[in-house]
Input
Amino acid sequence: MAVKRPTMADIARRAGVSKVAVSYALNDQPGVSEATRASIKNIAEELGWRPNSAARALTGGRAQAVGLVVRRPARTLGVEPFFMEFISGVETVLAERSYALMLQMVADQAQEVEVCRRWWGERRVDGVFLMDLQTDDARVEALRDTGLPAVAIGPPEVAGGLPAIWSDDGESVHEIVRYLAALGHRRIARVAGPAAFAHTAVRDAALAEACREAGIPEATVVHTDYTGDAGARAARALLIAPARPTALVFDNDIMAVAALSVAQELGLSIPADVSVVAWDESPLTQVVRPMLSAVTRDIPGYGATAATALLALIGGEDVGDVREGYAHFVPRGSTAPPPPDPAPR
Amino acid sequence: MAVKRPTMADIARRAGVSKVAVSYALNDQPGVSEATRASIKNIAEELGWRPNSAARALTGGRAQAVGLVVRRPARTLGVEPFFMEFISGVETVLAERSYALMLQMVADQAQEVEVCRRWWGERRVDGVFLMDLQTDDARVEALRDTGLPAVAIGPPEVAGGLPAIWSDDGESVHEIVRYLAALGHRRIARVAGPAAFAHTAVRDAALAEACREAGIPEATVVHTDYTGDAGARAARALLIAPARPTALVFDNDIMAVAALSVAQELGLSIPADVSVVAWDESPLTQVVRPMLSAVTRDIPGYGATAATALLALIGGEDVGDVREGYAHFVPRGSTAPPPPDPAPR
DNA sequence: CTGAAAGCGCTTACAG
DNA sequence: CTGAAAGCGCTTACAG
Output
């Protein structure tokens, strides 16, 4: 417990030089001969010296850490691979630059802002990721005058001038609808995430537009909280309605899986009676039968891009919006042409 | 960006007192009159002052942060709610004490040790959680002489003297086997996690013992990497074997879900032909049909206990092993009496 | 109860 | 190229 960790002073003593020389040597600054530098580095290595991050933060003014606050319930979060994959991508970039990641889960947006303010006030982080951007996101405004460097994970329209790291969900929606329409579907419904999320709104708008372009009736949209339960309820309601949809598009994986159960309950066969599409392919979408047709994207890559942008921003660079590659639709076993019209009841 | 954050010196100037008085006032130390204290606190509030964590860490010697290094692939991690739920429990405790959580994902155990060493050397953390304890865990030894406070998440036998925060998986295994035996099952197989994990070994041993006690043949155990794919392969192999088991017990949720698909593939009905049990009930186990009989435990509570223990350890208290409450077996629709013997092929 | 001083471990100017 | 000094923002003794 009481193991004393070595400091620059210890190295200086051992090397018979001043602390300053040690600092120069270890930071590859001019000011010491190469021989001294090498010997100092050797001693540092031997002693197992590491820079005290607190002291560095105090002088350099950098915490060498970035923060991520998450406001979804742990249960939802745990089931969707999105977050862990995103974080793993973030960390590949942070690790290279020896940046640390601070994580906190909170219950609401007020707390989210509060945690960011505290982190920044305490100089614990140099910047933050704003996840799950909302259509009218209070955080953007609340953090503006603090000077906290932040990147928004979401579409630029709602980022309020913050660099937006986003993937064009609209394009993916068009791809899905074109595919379903080509199969012959005319009645599509979507079981979406929370309406407040900006990317939900983007998908909503794109869906309406895509249906128009495809010349099919506008799709029904039901918003949920992303849980399997809510997804099941929504799917059930849609499938027992008079003119039931022949294709259901879900905003995450767990809701799509829940829909398989609902279809079974109702004696409907997938994909013969109803086609199902999930958003974000995951291990989950591939262990069920039929495997789910899904949108797939490089989520770790998304995280890496966001981290790169944030570090650049912290470094004082001008960072613009970055659009990630499109998510691609991958047809699996859960999509097929619709049953002959009118749909059998 | 360049918004200057207020320091104690700013407050002292405004209040017309010394920096020391400010420190005393803000930290509720004796040394200032109540009137002065109140006025200083007011000014601090007005200015939006927050203690600079780097300066505090430098003087106090405490980083006010703890670390968690995770060594599972992001994809697996994302699907199992365990981690996010565990972390959410950890954070409820940390938040109360204004401790932060540092998170890092790594590829192997060497890196895991290295990250801990670095964090500790840099004084970024005051302690760490050791997750996924192995039967012969190199980390315990590697970290011992560093003095890094750590709690082991796993059984005491392998914690090497570190405080072990554990839930008695053995007891849950007994409960499952007693239940299955009572239903009439005699051929049980278990699709387990990696053999190297200590909690896997505990379950392995308990399973053998429980079968003996129940007077049924020893259960077959197949070790996997926790992925749905591996689970499906293992389940398939077991179910096409000559004397196939009538009950399958899985070490996580995703593998159990995969087994439903495999059964369907093979034309076997669950639970009529085969019973299925999952470990750790999750949203996932409840959205599939039949719902999976599963072991359920308070995972956030587990995380909270671990965090409490770690903070106590950091505080210099004597911390012993803490056993969490048992996980309980909850029968749902995936378990039933076995089909008449001999099993139909 | 109040003030001036020293120090945590490092970095950044500034003289020799 | 090398040394002594000052300072980051705070806390902890130590005198008045």
Q: What stands out?
A: The longest helix of chain B spans residues 198-214. The first strand of chain B starts at residue 65 and ends at 70. The mean pLDDT of chain B is 91. Residues 7-9, 19-20, 23-24, 27, 29, 51-52, 54-60 of chain B lie near DNA strand D (CB under 10 Å from a C1').
